[in-house]
Amino acid sequence: MQNLVEDFLQFLRHERGQSDNTARTYAAILGRFIAWAQKQNLNDWKQMELKHLMLFLQHERERNLETEPKDSPRRLSGESVYLEIAALRAFYKFAENEKLLPQNVAENLSLPRRWKRLPKALTDEEMKKLLAPESPDSPENLCDRAILELAYASGLRLSELKNLRLEQLHLEAGFINVIGKGNKERVVPVGRKAVEALMRYIEAARPKLVTPKSPATVFLTRRGTPFAPVTLWLRIKNRVRRAGIARNITPHMLRHSFATHLLEHGADLRVIQELLGHANISTTEIYTHVAGNRLREIHKKFHPRAS
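RE: above sequence
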């Protein structure tokens, strides 16, 4: 069973151009399905029926979360169940197209409706705190500042920041080439402050981090290696804590702040879609709700006849 999953993961990476994160998520989900199936004495994909997929999903909804105590009432979120169904459907679609299985038993497995959560953004004041220079001007501090300035200036995903290479920078011209989801390339402008932070990091800090084995990725750890996603996010979280921002900041909040602040200051939604690398405008439209709520608050607070 595992061999067929490996074929599917290879297909995702090399033919569909899916991100490493998607491949890892699907691998974990299918691994859990195989482990569950074997406990039910199901050892061949050809034995699977729709009822088995339904039983697995029911099991997943009811199981204790690995990160929670055994007596915790918390269970798998609707978002996670959606991902599990998506993984099973994608796997069976691949197996059907490649004639590896006689039928697609997941084709009638319907995806639940996804409720769009409104993205949370940092306030202007929080962004000022976060982007304030830190002393001393150590290579790590200069690296952190360059990462944050670029994330806020260009709305990059964490994976895009992590994988950004020197040849993608065109700082004198004020833009970068970004390789996003599905290996889609887009051109993103970079503001003056972010260009200054990047130039300072590249000229004064990065040479001190480079080792003979360092790759050409822009951002390097103190050991001269590329950042792992968790390591990069921990660096940002530590910077958030040192800046005195009390609330919990998630990886996407810098990207959300970029989009929300652009919209609040009058940017066109189609332009924001292009900058974020969204394939569909409906993904970008969620920011209109965020900006709308913010504009209503401002109107209520400052308009003389609003209350």
